[in-house]
Amino acid sequence: MAEAFGAAGWHVVLHYGNSAREAEALAARLPSAEAIHCDLTDSGSSAKMVERMSGKLDDWRVLVNCAAIFRPDDVTGLDSATYDRSMGINAKTPVRMAQAFLKHARARTGRTVIQFTDQKLENTNPDFFSYTMSKHAVHGALPMLVMGATRPDDRIYGLAPGAILPSHDQTADEIEVSHRLNLLRRKTGADEIANACLFLAEGHLASGETLFIDSGQHLLRQPRDVIYLAREMAG
After folding, report:
1. Whole-number Å distance between alpha carbons of 73 and 108
2. Bridge pairing between strands 155-161 and 210-213
3. Which residues have CB under 8 Å from 73's CB, separation 6+?
4. Between the chain's N and C termini, which has fewer beta carbons within 10 Å?
């Protein structure tokens, strides 16, 4: 996404948690970019980071909230630590960052928040219980932000990916199978996510819309996460 925005002529601000070397190297490769650190487990510090950048940038038009953790816990026994961490990083922090952006960011045109959710919003299964709840929570905040925190030219969007990158301990064969468990039987590319972000950044859709980039996976009814479906098929 950073490379796509950079190639399109945007100044890119890269947030990193523990990957300082990689973030700085990526920023150096882009035409106009900088990297900043923040611990997203601290929602207050995350909001302050957005406030500081709002004072520095005089034309900050888009905030992309894509960071998340994807940890397993079970529908029959919620793991409290997993729940607290998932709800904090995946829901509370991005909402507070969006609020800070809409309160403080200056832009010559309308401002846009792009919030990553998940195709599980429509194709829910009981795996990754706390993660899925956190994505439903942040999705539920989007219409409220549209109604109460935006100006007429602002936009709030959801972007709901399917399987894009390898997860946990998947083998190469499992990735090949699991990433094709969608209506089109194809692997959805990371470049498609980047292109969708660029499209949403232009504000063509009505505020509050969610764009699914998952090769139709959200239109299915899968009883388990595709990680486990692929393993069951192999077995």
Report:
1. 44
2. parallel
3. 79, 82, 83, 128, 129, 130
4. C
Residue the block writes with tokens 């940890």: 71
Of the candidates 67, 73, 78, 10, which has an alpha carbon nearest to the alpha carbon of residue 42? 67
CA dihedral 22, 28, 34, 38 (to 10 degrees): 10
Q: What is the DSSP string of 18-86?
A: S-HHHHHHHHHHSSSEEEEE--TT-HHHHHHHHHHHHHH-S---EEEE--------BTTB--HHHHHHH
Q: Any residues with CB less than 8 A from the CB of 4 and at least 6 apart, and which?
A: 191, 194, 195, 197, 198
Do 161 and 213 form a contact (C-beta atoms < 8 A)?
Answer: yes
Confidence at residue 169, expressed as pLDDT on a 0 to 100 scale: 87
CA 195 remoteness from chain centre: 14
Instruction: Assign 17 to helix, strand or coil.
Output: coil
User: 116-166: per-residue pLDDT in tens?
Assistant: 999 999 999 999 999 999 999 999 999 999 999 999 999 999 999 999 999
Cα→Cα distances 46→19, 51, 58, 134, Å: 17, 9, 19, 18
Secondary element (H or E) of residue 159 = strand 155-161
Q: Tokens 């990957």 belong to which residue?
A: 19
d(CA 212, CA 158): 8
